[in-house]
Amino acid sequence: MEIIVCIKQVPDTTEVKIDPVKGTLIREGVPSIVNPFDKNALEAALQIREQKGGKVTVLTMGPPQAVDALRECLAMGADEAVLLSDRAFAGADSWATSYTLAKAIEKVGKPELIFCGKQAIDGDTAQVGPGIAEHLGLPQATYVQKIREVQSEQLLVERAIEGGYEVITVPLPAMIAVEKSINEPRFPTMMGTMKAHKKTIPTWSAADIGAEADKIGLDGSCTQVKRVFAPERKGQGEMLTGETENEVCLLLLEKLQGAKIV
Amino acid sequence: MNFQLSEEQAMIQKIVRDFAEKELAPIAAELDEKGEFPHAIINKMGEMGLFGLPFSEEYGGSGAGCLSYVIAVEEISRACASTGITYAAHCSIGTAPIYLFGTEEIKKKWLPLCVQGKALASFGLTEANAGSDACGTQTTAVPEGDEWILNGSKCFITNVGVAKIAVITAVTEKGQGTRGISAFIVPTDTPGFSVGQPYNKLGLKASDTREIILENVRIPKENLLGKQGEGFKQFLVALDGGRISIGALSVGIAQACLDASLKYAKEREQFGQPISKFQAIQFKLADMKMKTELARLMVYKAAWLKDNGKPFSSEAAIAKLYASESCMQNASEAVQIHGGYGYMKEYPVERYMRDAKLMEIGEGTSEIQRMVIARLLGC
Ligand SMILES: Cc1cc2nc3c(=O)[nH]c(=O)nc-3n(C[C@H](O)[C@H](O)[C@H](O)COP(=O)(O)OP(=O)(O)OC[C@H]3O[C@@H](n4cnc5c(N)ncnc54)[C@H](O)[C@@H]3O)c2cc1C
């Protein structure tokens, strides 16, 4: 089975700090990692390859240093890696990004499966995977928490929904965006690490993938980031104290009535 | 001169640190408390190829070299020194003698298993009357037909209770001193080969250390490692490499001591401020940082020399000596910075202190390292 996994290099922080003046993310001193959900996507792809044979190609759009993220994926066991890097790609929103990735996927070949993480931990949009499927005219399953069965024509998957999950079949080729709970990504091997550094990773430009200039980067983006800011901290809660439980209850009731809640 | 890790080495460091932080650090205290050998972790380390780092691709290794290997030993030991000694003993003194001196047949048979972690290896040199002075070796090996028959005992042997193979030194020619010692490869399931109960140790409690009893253990002739009478020379070479890895283990613990102390010093408040604001504590932390950095530098240098085919005996001894003593000093200061809490099991530093002490003893005591360095100075 031919599988493509789209990955993103993101800053390793759960607590993204924002420059209050410039309104941009502060990246200095923050190490870069492979977006955690994308590692789940790669793990899912590797498991299918182990079962069914085939090839796993990892793809990323990013600055030249994103090659480190690709090498990590190769060390985990991916067969091939491609970097999409071009100044013209800069400033892309999720629409332009998914267009660019879709064009690159067409150049790689005709994959039967495209895996993405459910979202990237820096932007949190969860739009790129579905965008790729739309650009390529493929079916998609998002928030996949389990792959139950892999058949040559279709996939049987569990899709997380509020309060439970649904089981759906997806005809192939398709785009699958995965949840964290789908698997436990393997650690890269030492042998894989050594091999990953010997491998040449091609860098493709906008011209290489035949992307139209007005559909990529800032120019191809339908949305613009107006302002990035840290939400203001909410005020402290108020502690009600009293001698007895009753007293506190009455105080609370007064407050609620005062605020016209009850 | 270039102090930059290669891209591969930097990535190996990142991967092993990530593994150690996620899989090992959370269970290290419990492993220590229960004295439980971490079989599942060792299996995972085997799958990741960590045991293959210093060995060539020919035998299933990754050919990443000694420096990559010591980086991995350091990161593992930073999380759990018991796992660190298991790892280091398996690679540096268990597997390396086979790699360095084994016949092609022996290598083909055992190295792939050792490298994948399917067979753990141990190294049996020390005896009740032969510690620092291997001349006191009393275990004997006598040829008979196309076999060797081994009799005797070994003490304090790391990994042997979980190992499939042991490299054993024994006297083949009495009265010849060190030239009468040879080394043998002994599968641990050979009849007559038995091990004692695990020792009840001060530290490194999740590592396996036992006595070996050899009673008419018959092994084929070809299990002699290299040539007869070269056992002493061989283990000097193996221990040179082993010392670099004990150095790395020490750096790992020394770093863990600093990590825990810095965190605690910033959190603990006395006299109205964090204790890290007191110069007395700052000086301790500064010294701990300095010693850790210097120890790491020397360990890396010794490993680099080894990787580049240059003599490294003196540097290995210096690295082991300086790193182990720094590690013990850091551990002591770490407990001091933690005060009474440092003496309690709720904090990891008492474990670091117990684990650290072995670094100054195993694979040649600090006194022996000084003798080695002095001898190489020409004294
Ligand atoms: C946890 C653990 C794991 C071990 N694992 C292994 C293993 O896997 N394989 C193995 O073969 N061994 C192993 N050992 C044994 C270890 O290598 C020895 O304990 C060590 O070499 C010291 O030997 P000894 O204990 O007999 O001490 P001794 O040699 O009796 O030393 C006692 C003291 O005398 C000092 N001393 C000795 N000779 C001199 C001298 N000439 N000048 C000055 N001072 C001297 C020593 O430095 C030390 O302070 C292990 C030990 C421990 C505790």
Order of helices and strands of chain A, N to C? EEEHEHEHEHEEEEHEH
Strand arrangement, largest sheet of chain A? 9-8-7-10-6-1-4-5-11
Distinct helical segment count of chain A: 6
The counted number of beta strands of chain B is 9
How much of the residues of chain B is beta strand, in percent?
5-15%
CATH topology of chain A: Rossmann fold
Order of helices and strands of chain B: HHHHHEEEEEEEHEEHHHH
Largest sheet of chain A: 9 strands, mixed
What's the helical proportion of residues of chain B? 40-55%
Q: How many distinct folded domains of chain A?
A: 1
User: Which compounds are bound in this model?
Assistant: flavin-adenine dinucleotide
Tell me which protein chains meet in the greatest interface and how many residues each side has. A-B, 14 and 19 residues
| Rg of chain B, Cα atoms, Å | 21 Å
Q: CATH architecture of chain A, please? A: 3-Layer(aba) Sandwich
In brief, what are we looking at here?
The complex is a heterodimer of chains A (262) and B (379). By secondary structure, chain A is α/β, with parallel strands linked by helices.
Characterize the structure shown.
The complex is a heterodimer of chains A (262) and B (379). With 262 residues, chain A is an alpha/beta fold. Chain A has one domain: Rossmann fold (3-Layer(aba) Sandwich), CATH 3.40.50. Helix content of chain A is 28%, strand content 24%. Chain A has a nine-stranded mixed beta sheet, sandwiched between helices. In chain A, strands 2-3 form a two-stranded antiparallel sheet. In chain A, helix 2 packs across helix 5 (190-198) and helix 3 crosses helix 4. The longest helix of chain A is centred in the N-terminal third of the chain and has 17 residues, at 36-52. Chain A is globular. In chain A, 40% of the residues are buried. Chain B is α+β, with helices and mostly antiparallel strands. In chain B, 53% of the residues lie in helices and 14% in strands. Chain B has helices at 7-34, 39-48, 66-79, 81-101, 104-116, 231-267, 279-307, 313-338, 349-359, 366-377; strands at 121-124, 140-144, 147-158, 165-171, 181-187, 193-195, 209-220, 269-270, 273-274. In chain B, the strands form three sheets. Chain B has a four-stranded antiparallel beta sheet with strand order 2-3-7-6, with helices on one face. In chain B, strands 1-4-5 form a three-stranded mixed beta sheet. In chain B, helix 4 (81-101) runs antiparallel to helix 5 (104-116) and helix 6 packs antiparallel against helix 7 (279-307). The model of chain B has no long low-confidence stretch (mean pLDDT 97). The A-B interface holds A 68, 71-72, 75, 187-194, 196-197 and B 7-8, 11-12, 15, 18-19, 44, 47-50, 52-53, 62-64, 68, 72. The complex binds flavin-adenine dinucleotide. Flavin-adenine dinucleotide binds next to strand 1, strand 3 and helix 10 of chain B.
